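Lab notebook page, bench 4
Experiment: in silico fold of construct C2
Operator: M.H.
Input chain length: 137 residues
Purpose: comparison with the prior construct
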Amino acid sequence: MSKSYEGDINGNLFTFQSSDDADFFGSKGDIPQVLEYVYLEHEKKDVVAGIEKCVEAIGKKNIKIMKDFFDKDLAKGHAGLTVSFSEGLKWYARYYLGNEILRSLQEKGRCKFQVELQPSLDAEMLMNFQKYKEVGS
């Protein structure tokens, strides 16, 4: 089950992505039934720094592979990645979210959104997902 976020940016976190993953980019979510984030123009540098950390963790080549993986055909597998698949997924999901936050800051001067609170996908389920992908490639 995916966790949706809504506000200045809208979408779904990856199933394995923690509801509070946007904490990585500097703003901390309030914890009622949802996490609420507010990023303002002066925090853009923190978001950019977070995106740069994601790029460093994944590697530019791997970002393209991950983007192709999600955009084109999940069944083709993940040949060519130079990071572990599960680690690459975590960092790519964070990279994607950071770019959504940055785009809103650039277009609107702020980014405010809420994320549904749900537990992350546990490690065993992620391993099963990876095995499924390996069989499908």
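Observations: The helical segments are 44-58, 60-71, 85-108, 123-136. The mean pLDDT is 75.
Next step: discuss at group meeting.
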